[in-house]
Amino acid sequence: MTITVVPPAPSTLEGYNFAYLDEATKRMIRRALLKAVAIPGHQIPFGAREMPLPYGWGTGGIQVTASILGPTDTLKVIDQGADDTTNAISIRRFFTRVAGVATTEHTAEATVVQTRHRIPERTLREDQIIVYQVPQPEPLFRLEPRRMETKRLHALADYGLMHVRLYEDIARLGHIAKAYDYPVMVNRRYLMSPSPIPAFDNPKMHRMPALQLFGAGREKRIYAIPPYTEVRSLDFEDHPFRPIRAPHACALCGSRDTYLDEVITDDAGGRLFVCSDTDFCAERQADSAKEAAE
Amino acid sequence: MTTPLLKATGLNLRFGAIPALVDVAIDVAAGEVVAIVGESGSGKTTLLRVLSGMMAPDAGDVLWLGQDVLAMGEAARRRLMRTEWGYVHQNPRDGLRLGVSAGGNVGERLMAVGARHYGNIRAEALSWLAKVEIDASRIDDLPRTFSGGMQQRLQIARTLVTHPKLVFMDEPTGGLDVSVQARLLDLIRSLSRELGLSVLIVTHDIAAARLLADRILVMRRGQVVEQGLTDRVLDDPQHPYTQLLVSSVLAA
């Protein structure tokens, strides 16, 4: 009896079109993307496909990424700021297998960054594209349940409702309590949900040199912010928008101006504040180690 | 006579076989309170909805300061609705946001027209709550914890906060008990006099019409059967239906 040795799975899968989606689907998504870029902040419906992962895991972001990816691109995937969490690893591996593109954990090396819940701390460049995974594209969702009516409100730029919500926060709690998915006005026209990034990241969207694309798979909507577009967080004149961050320094790299995660270290109340952007934190640690060695 | 704020001519509307409006003409001058009375199903509320642009008639024109309301775009009409017009619904639950505090309800129209200063919005809300006799301590309470009369007063405050020129009121006292009705009528009268407001009020309550209105229109089966100064119409009704209506009021 001979034992057949199963060869290890090839790094790229055979039988799939480049980047998983068929070309007709990609073309449809690219047309939606062009439309979205032409009308910054406006939600464009598109025919989202079934993807080999569940809704809520980034089906919208993956489809956008698949449509813009070329063989020479370098992909970085962020999940809650980290490069080494399940979602980030599996999406990166997915594109390695179906597109054979290079992947990286370093923001500076990437040409396409797909992200969930964070914008990298390092400023993005003009030759980079950031793709957001969006669970709920409609900023007025909690305030107005009828889709027809929210479309009308967007068409008429009738956004008093969102300010009523912020008013309520201040009246009840003394400050605007929304800490993530903080609504923004894009190009002074469309109210937009920035996907659940922390409010801390909102100022980074303002006049960002990189193209920002947003994909919502379950809700079947795409929207975009072209480079150097004005993005303003909603606020009141006497209660200005403030990006919220934990008032600590990162325990690993000592940074005082990055967004921090609170990590529980034991069951005796021990806790640690570390940078949420793992790549940025590791770079800073490497830099300071190099300085110490010199 | 000065040119009317609102002028409607030749309004016709049918719901299938039922004539809801038949050749209705109406005009409202600045600072005038006009009451529309009639039995239920006579087309009072339909007339109000057509005049406020919420419903399109089969034929006829509605002019606001010479501008055709029905030909306006929706954006322009909405702007009108939240600046120069106001609409007080019969049921305050239709006009209020029940999940938003009283202050937020009053402030909504201000924010919709671009107010972005929290302190000013709140001060304005407080002053309007005082005008409609709602205690300042209730400003952060939800309207669903208010009594029916308070909800109606809150709706009036919310409507008047942007100083509209014309307010449509659809039976604002319906469903309230008599003493609350009396206070509400008193409030509407004093506010409209104080602010020089034009009011178009739909009611089936003849007594309310006499108290508030300068002029009165009597409707029946979609037709205006009689109109004129309130006292003239009520003291000397000409049309048989108006006579019936006036004689059927119980003298308290």
From TrEMBL, chain A:
Alphabetic keyword roster: 4Fe-4S, Iron, Iron-sulfur, Lyase, Metal-binding, S-adenosyl-L-methionine
Amino-acid biosynthesis is among the record's keywords: no
Record field: catalytic activity: alpha-D-ribose 1-methylphosphonate 5-phosphate + AH2 + S-adenosyl-L-methionine = alpha-D-ribose 1,2-cyclic phosphate 5-phosphate + methane + 5'-deoxyadenosine + L-methionine + A + H(+)
Keyword Metal-binding set for record: yes
InterPro entries in UniProt: PhnJ
Pfam families: PhnJ (PF06007)
UniProt-listed Enzyme Commission number(s): 4.7.1.1
Similarity comment: family membership: Belongs to the PhnJ family.
Function text: Catalyzes the breakage of the C-P bond in alpha-D-ribose 1-methylphosphonate 5-phosphate (PRPn) forming alpha-D-ribose.
This protein's name: Alpha-D-ribose 1-methylphosphonate 5-phosphate C-P lyase
Organism: Neoroseomonas terrae
UniProtKB/TrEMBL annotation, chain B:
Ranges where the ABC transporter domain occurs: 6-246
SUPFAM superfamilies from the UniProt entry: P-loop containing nucleoside triphosphate hydrolases (SSF52540)
Record keyword Signal present: no
Annotated GO MF terms: lyase activity
Pfam families: ABC_tran
InterPro entries (alphabetical): AAA+_ATPase (IPR003593), ABC_transporter-like_ATP-bd (IPR003439), ABC_transporter-like_CS (IPR017871), P-loop_NTPase (IPR027417), PhnK (IPR012700)
Domain of life of the source: Bacteria
PROSITE patterns: ABC_TRANSPORTER_1 (PS00211), ABC_TRANSPORTER_2 (PS50893)
NCBIfam families: CP_lyasePhnK (TIGR02323)
Name of this protein: Phosphonate C-P lyase system protein PhnK
Organism, scientific name: Neoroseomonas terrae
